[in-house]
Amino acid sequence: MAEFTMELNDEQKEVRDWLHGFAADVIRPAAAEWDEREETPWPVIQEAAKVGIYSLDFYAQQYFDPTGLGIPMAMEELFWGDAGIALSIVGTGLAAVGVLANGTEEQIGTWIPQMYGDPADVKVAAFCSSEPDAGSDVAAMRTRAVYDEAKDEWVINGTKTWATNGGIANVHVVVAVVDPDLGSKGHASFIVPPGTPGLAQGQKFKKHGIRASHTAEVILDNVRVPGSCLLGGKQKLDERLARARERARAGGGERVKNAAMATFEASRPAVGAMAVGTARAAYEVALDYAKTREQFGRPIIDNQGVAFQLADMRTQIDAARLLVWRASWMAVNGRPFTAAEGSMSKLYASETAKTVTAQAVQILGGNGYTREYPVERMHRDSAIYTIFEGTSEIQRLVIARTLSGMPIR
Ligand SMILES: Cc1cc2nc3c(=O)[nH]c(=O)nc-3n(C[C@H](O)[C@H](O)[C@H](O)COP(=O)(O)OP(=O)(O)OC[C@H]3O[C@@H](n4cnc5c(N)ncnc54)[C@H](O)[C@@H]3O)c2cc1C
Asked: Can you give the residue ranges of the Acyl-CoA oxidase/dehydrogenase middle domain (predicted)?
């Protein structure tokens, strides 16, 4: 087990500086344009692929870094550049992790390369779980997958929503109900290969922030996929469902629930790190501005009212990063999340990003309210962190339940 450290080692510093250079030289200068266009920034993704940032290898390397700091450091730097573009670059990772977590070696080898494409022809992937009536309440999912034994095919019907890269993805990973009596334990994940008939993009959402990232509905109308597209395979699914039915009969189910919770706790710090990146970016702009903007014959930072805001902003950002790094280290080293430390890190970092970017707009005054300065965009972007991957209210529920052991609602 790696000791917890707050110091990046030389190799990590090198990667951080390389990512920071890409964020500063390629992502940040393109941010305003793609925010206005509200389109996937394919040329930037392609640049990231050329230098090796948009690839499974890169993420796997960071993910398996035993200090746990690889992923948070990478996320913070890319999202420091711009949240919308960075999400376009890392969004495929969400689908890839779905396959890595549940897929067989053959499925991993077949589908993950098709999710990324190659630098000459980049592709993206989408992870489709949320539905119009199943957001925070995942168990309310209605998309149904039925097995056609005669053809060894699964037939999927339903409507997914809020899918990052939905409809433009080469590969879609779709979560569907296979046994409606088992609630969320009756769900399974499927690969929908490129060009499968019946899968179509529904409405593309016009969003408040992260506008360079494509978000859309995905309609599944009698989508037929081969049996080999069930992640993990039929035998594993049948065994899992049998265990869940047995536990339901015995009135249990805690162990399965705990395993799912551990997965969420492990992935949430990454979203916290994205939020730290956006918060740090806005804080830096505000600090520079406060030192140079003069009113009443002196820089505005000379006023305690402004200087104290900056002191609070930096304190909250550093506190958020420490929570994120702690949770990430715990995840990589298999430490039990006895106080829902993953949820804590996501909750605190995402709320910090909203507060800090709002303060940055205030410190820039009228300029902060215009698109001439980046803090206006960062403030809009920051609102996503308290919503996706579990809202702040859901994080508080998870923390409160973990601390109390009570079924708090
Ligand atoms: C830009 C964007 C990208 C996304 N990308 C993806 C993606 O790639 N794949 C995917 O599957 N999903 C994705 N999502 C979906 C996202 O995870 C959901 O929006 C989120 O889980 C919240 O669900 P909801 O929007 O239905 O809100 P709801 O669940 O309807 O919540 C509405 C409000 O009620 C509150 N609330 C709900 N239940 C409780 C409770 N028990 N106690 C207290 N408060 C409660 C919530 O906190 C929230 O404030 C994305 C969403 C957005 C906006």
From this structure: 126-223
Q: Are 343 and 395 in contact (CB under 8 A)?
A: yes
| 34 Cα distance to chain centroid | 20
Does the structure show a pLDDT above 70 at 356?
yes
pLDDT confidence band for 8 (50 / 70 / 90): very high
The rounded Å distance from CA 354 to ligand 1 centre is: 17
- The tens digit of pLDDT for each residue in 142-187 reads 999 999 999 999 999 999 999 999 999 999 999 999 999 999 999 9
Best mutation site among 391, 395, 397, 409 for ligand 1 pocket (most ligand atoms within 8 Å of CB):
391
User: What average pLDDT does the segment 248-274 reach?
Assistant: 77
Give the pLDDT mean for 51-56: 96
Q: Which of these is catalytic: 47, 77, 389, 393?
A: 389
Burial 317-349 (b: 16+ CB within 10 A, else e): beebbebbbbbbbbbbeeeebeebbbbbbbbbb
Domains identified in the chain and CATH numbers: 10-121 (1.10.540.10), 125-250 (2.40.110.10), 256-404 (1.20.140.10)
Q: pTM to 2 decimals?
A: 0.97
14 lines ligand 1 (CB under 6 A): no
Q: pLDDT at position 383, please?
A: 98
